[in-house]
Amino acid sequence: QVQLVESGGGSVQAGGSLRLSCSISISGYSSPCLGWFRQPPGKEREGVAASNRGGGTKYADSVKGRFTISLDNAKNTLYLQMNSLQPEDTAMYYCAVDRFCATIHFVPEKYNYWGQGTQVTVSS
After folding, report:
1. In tens digits, what is the pLDDT along the chain, a chain of 124 residues?
2. Which of helix, strand or coil describes residue 89?
3. Contact between residue 12 and residue 76 where contact means Cβ atoms under 8 Å apart
4. 58, 57, 51, 123: which is closest to 85 by C-alpha?
């Protein structure tokens, strides 16, 4: 059973920062991928950042150098630190879990569990 609860979204001006959190309750899955996706208005959902329990990470080109994904195993919480935010980062952000993940990826159909989403709005 997996439960995901996101928090930390909000409104910020361009150049600002936000940190998203996703409380993850996972039992029985030893090799999951943990990812952050976003869906801008009127667009497809896209992968932003993903990680596995071993510390491997993957980032979309558009966020490299600005966003950082991290996992606090003790707190069972996945974070997305977002710096230098731009209006094009405006979207609904979701955390997600792929229960068995050999290679970190951004294929939404392979992520089995999703959070409810948290809105991020960046104004110019």
Report:
1. 778 999 999 999 999 999 999 998 876 666 789 999 999 999 999 999 999 888 899 999 999 999 999 998 888 899 999 999 999 999 999 999 998 888 999 999 999 999 999 999 999 9
2. helix
3. no
4. 123
Amino acid type, 97: V
Please provide the distance, in angstroms rounded to a whole number, between the alpha carbons at the two ends of the chain.
41
Tokens of 19: 């940190």
Residue with tokens 């630190």: 81
Question: Is 82 in contact with 19 (CB distance < 8 Å)?
Answer: yes
Read off the tokens for 124: 């110019």
Question: What's at 58, amino acid-wise?
Answer: K
Q: Which helix (H) or strand (E) holds 78?
A: strand 77-82
**Which token pair is 72?**
């606090």
Smallest CA-to-CA distance from 116 within 2, 4, 34, 26 is with: 4
Q: What angle do CA 120, 121, 122 make, to 5 degrees?
A: 120
